[in-house]
Amino acid sequence: MRKLLFVVMCVAFIVSCRKEEDREAPGVAITSPAAGSQLNVLDVVNVGVNITDNEELSRVDLRLVSNDMIPVLPVSSRNISGTSQSVTITYVLDDIRLETGSYYFEVIAYDATGNEEHAFVQVNVTALPLQLKSIIAAYTAPGTIDVMQIDSAWNLSSLGAFTGDFTDLAVSSWWQQVGYTGKISGPFRSWSLDGNYSGWTTNAFPSTGDYWGKCEAIGRDWFINFRADGVIRSKTWTGQNTAQYTANSGYFFNAFTVSGSYFFADQVDATGTNRVLSVFDKATGGGAVQQTTLTAVPLKMFPRDNSSIYIAANNGNQAKLLIYDFSMNGTWEPVSLPAGRLLSATQVDSNTLLLAMDNGNIYKFTYNPVGAVVWATRSAQQVRYDPAGNTVITAEGVNVRQYDYNNAAQINSIAMPDSVDDVELRYNR
Hints:
Blueprint: H1 2-21, E1 27-32, E2 37-40, E3 44-52, E4 57-65, E5 76-79, E6 84-92, E7 101-111, E8 116-126, E9 132-141, E10 144-151, E11 156-163, E12 168-172, E13 177-181, E14 188-192, E15 201-202, E16 215-218, E17 221-226, E18 231-235, E19 241-246, E20 251-259, E21 262-269, E22 275-281, E23 290-294, E24 297-305, E25 308-315, E26 318-325, E27 330-332, E28 342-349, E29 352-357, E30 362-367, E31 370-376, E32 382-386, E33 391-396, E34 399-404, E35 410-415, E36 422-427
Parallel strand pairs: 2-8
Antiparallel strand pairs: 1-3, 3-6, 4-5, 4-7, 7-8, 9-10, 9-36, 10-11, 12-13, 13-14, 14-15, 16-17, 17-18, 18-19, 20-21, 21-22, 22-23, 24-25, 25-26, 26-27, 28-29, 29-30, 30-31, 32-33, 33-34, 34-35
């Protein structure tokens, strides 16, 4: 009996040693799809893989990753066994937010000891076509905010009437949510446009002055200006903080945007006389990494490239267009705008802006060739560019109108119950 026990223990010891000594990773080869394959969002893709191991296979994982090797879709896993297997894994490109570009299928094969091996195949993905689903507009009366929706057939319906005051309206196409900020007593409130992401509310602390500033939805994040707190917070669709950007002591924020890895915001002191443009690390938040003096009051900011932005602003009663460059930490003026104040601005592309002014014209600015010309003679308090339809949406008094971008011809018009305070565009993704 002792002899038998001794033999069993020896065998177990030898097997254990063999497993501990197995440092050889599996072999893995992707057989399909072919490198450079053209795929579309919502495609169902069969990914073929050949896997071998000197001892025993355990599992294979498949996921889609970006060029930076960041996962963009969830992992699909399959248990396998033996020393050699050929498997086909069905993978669905089911995130409608995937952008057109180059991606990789990454396959990770594991053996029973835990050794792993990675294999990649590059594919090109074409995004789901961008579609304008509706136009969201807000108008106000003392103590109330009414939010309306204009659908693709230009039918008008109510999204809700709310008690409170109003500063800014924003739409997150990523989460299909609409939100607005109050001014003194009103909250930040967001709610669902399709029933999938319910939204959330943040109330203001008691304040005798403007508590709230602007709000924006950029990518998957909400950015909200808690003006009285001197911070801008980025939040998820459920209201959880992802980063916080802190103004200088005694200052509060106004306009802001994101470009590349930076968050840009202007801030002004309590006297309203000292103003700076600040640059923050988008990922970490905190205090500014650098800043420079501003003499004009920004109305809107737009990304130009990874390290520079456009600033559409007013200096007193004169509209100004500035470019801020991170490397020089300063602003410069590419063109002198006509006499008048800027009312609204929108970005067409990295080279082109539309600027609505109180002189009754909307100007088209281009960086190359540099210049500003009249795009249309329209008195618009709000202007938005729709890249999906290559159209321009304006708010002109009580009227919301749609124009062909190429020739400024009117396509649609609808009257709201009262003068429009803000208008935003909702897309399918």
